[in-house]
Amino acid sequence: MLTDRQQDTYDFIVHYFDEHDRAPLLSEVAHGIGLSSQGSVHNYIQALVNEGLIERVVGKSRGLRLVQRHNESEKISVILPLLGRVAAGRLIEAVHDESEIDLGDMFSGSGRFVLKVNGDSMIDKAIMSGDYVVLQEQRTANHGDIVLALVDFHDATLKTLLINDNGTVTLQPANADYEPVTLPSERVMIQGVVVGQLRTYS
Question: Which of the residues are catalytic?
Fold first, then answer.
């Protein structure tokens, strides 16, 4: 537990970092907390080091570092765009709703994006309503891929893509309550292929 003076010292250092984006000199800390002795400040700082709140950086005149912020700065954070919701039931108009979701480094990669599933037509593929699916943006897909398909430039859906020999494609649900939809291939535009999935539990 910190003494009042140690807490004052720590609070000043944090505030100084916020204001100047660098560490204060000992003289600045002393002035900031109303002391004339830098020796006392040195003792307070050593106590903060012992508590694991700050670190000394050897060879620098402003050789202090906030431990928590240093650790946070070393974390790799990957932000993917959350573009909206996609139908996994009957075809409905795609809803565009831009925000962001942080997935760490689990699904990083160029051209990746996230959609939240709305519907139960893919439950036999273990894709449930409310799940987040990570997709690789691309305009082609292989037979059997789970894809985000745009039908007639209007209706977006998540289905398994089956490529037929007669110039048609089938959007195959994974739920016996839904019928597959077979269309001429020119009516179906692939928007992306599922490469990952996330689920949260409350």
Answer: 121, 159
